[in-house]
Amino acid sequence: MQLYHFSEIRLERLIPQEGNRRHNSEDACAAGRLVVWLTDDPSRAPGVEGAAKFRHTVEVEESDPLLTKDESVEKLKSLWDAEIGGSGSTAECETIYFYDGELDVIEVYPIT
After folding, report:
1. 68, 27 in Cβ contact below 8 A?
2. Mind listing the pLDDT tens digit of every residue in the chain (112 residues)?
3. pTM of the predicted structure, to 2 decimals
4. Residues 23 and 31: beta-carbon distance below 8 Å
5. Residues 6+ apart with CB under 8 A from 64
6. Residue 89, helix vs strand vs coil
7. Least packed by Cβ within 10 Å: which of 4, 25, 38, 69?
8. Neighbours of 57 (CB within 10 A)
9. Residue 103: phi, psi to the nearest 5?
10. CB of 75 within 8 A of CB of 26?
């Protein structure tokens, strides 16, 4: 599947790191680890909104053992569906992942 990483600089390879935008509400499984953050939404730059200048496309198998869904976001979507939005109201919401390895970038798209 294609996933996206947004950043202020153009990259040819995504290398796991702990950036200055990491925060306490991220998945506890990623806390304190070097990871690459990814999203399935090509139009939104989670964590770097307004600062992102490039969208990097990568290809990752959904079954790749280094790929993990951000469960904190998935729990929020479930809570929203159950309490406020009704069943499936977050179906169109992005899924955020973290990856425990390096990834080759297959395409870079400048954000204007």
Report:
1. yes
2. 999 999 999 999 999 976 554 444 455 555 567 889 899 889 877 667 678 899 999 999 999 999 998 866 656 656 665 666 666 664 566 788 889 999 999 999 998 7
3. 0.76
4. no
5. 99
6. coil
7. 25
8. 15
9. -135, 135
10. no
Give CA–CA dist 62/20, Å, rounded.
28
DSSP letter for each residue of 10-56: --SEE--B--TT--TTS-TTTTTS-BEEEES-TT--TT-TTT--EEE
- The CA distance from 4 to 66, in Å, is 16
CA gyration radius, the chain = 14
CA 55 remoteness from chain centre:
12
- At 74, list the tokens: 């998935």
In this structure, are residues 16 and 75 in contact, taking their beta carbons and an 8 Å threshold? no
Q: How far apart are CA 25 and CA 28, in angstroms?
A: 8
Q: How many CA atoms lie within 13 A of 32 on its CB side?
A: 2
